[in-house]
Amino acid sequence: MKALTFTLVAEPPERLDLSPLTPExxxxxxxxxxxxxxxxxxxxxxxxxxIFRVAGNDPLDIVFEGGSARLDRVAEGMRxxxxxVIGNVxxxxxxxxxxxxxxxxxxxxxxxxxxxxxxxxxxxGNAGDHLGAPLAGELAGMNGGVLIVRGRAGAFAADRMRRGxxxxxxxxxxxxxxxxxxxxxxxxxGTGEMPGYLMRRGSILLDRAPKSLSPSFVECxxxxxxxxxxxxxxxxxxxxxxxxxxxxxxxxYGGDNAVLGMGEVLFPR
Length: 269
Hints:
By secondary structure, this protein is mainly beta. It has helices at 23-26, 31-34, 48-51, 226-237; strands spanning 3-8, 16-17, 52-55, 58-65, 71-72, 82-86, 101-104, 120-123, 143-149, 163-168, 184-187, 203-206, 218-219, 251-255, 263-267.
C-alpha cells in the first residue's frame, strides 16, 4: 500500500479544518468520498478535492505535501498511525492527540499540542504561542505524550501543562511553563522573562540561567540529582539532544511559592 497523500494544489482561499483527515477517520473510505469531505470553515465551504490532489491508499500513513498557515487542526484527536506535513501548518496541530506520530517539516501555529494525551509531535521549525497550552476556558494543557520543537517556541509554552514532556531546542518566549501543574519542560537556547510563573508542580530544565525568575522562587543550592542524570540520558537516547543538558549537580530553584510551590527550575551551574 502507498501512503495516502494530499498534495496542496494552491494556497487555500479560507482557513481549513483538517481534523477529519486522520488515520482512524479515513479508514475504509473510498478516495472519491474523501474528496467530498468539507474542510473549509467559511462561506466558501471548500472540500478536500478543491484544495488537494489525493493519491495513495494507506490511511495509516498520511502525507500532506505543501503547507500553509491556513491548515488548522492537523491530526486532531489522532490515536495511531503516522501523519507527515511537508510545510507549515496553522493553529492547533495535534490538538487532543492520543497516539501515533505527527511530524511537521516546517513551522506550527499557536496552540500546537494543546490537550495532547499521548503520541509524539515533532516540529522541525518554530512553534507559535501557547505551545501545549489549554484553549480559553480549559483547566489543563498538555496531558501526556512527547512534543519536540527543533526551532523556537513563542510565549506561554507549556502553560498549565499536566503531564508529558515538551522539549524546545532554540529558545522560548516569556512565561515558559507558567501555571504548570506537573510534567517536564526542557528549553535549550534561552527563555524569556519569568519561566515557571505561578507553577504548582513539575520541572523546568534549562541549558542556562534564566533572565529572571519570579521573586517567589527560592534557591535550593546544587544538590546531587539522580533525576538530572536520568533525564539527560533519556533526552540523548530519544535523539532529542546530542549532549547532556544539566550535568550532575545543576543549580535548583523551588517554587512558585506564590501558589503551591512544589515545582522546580534547574539549570547548569
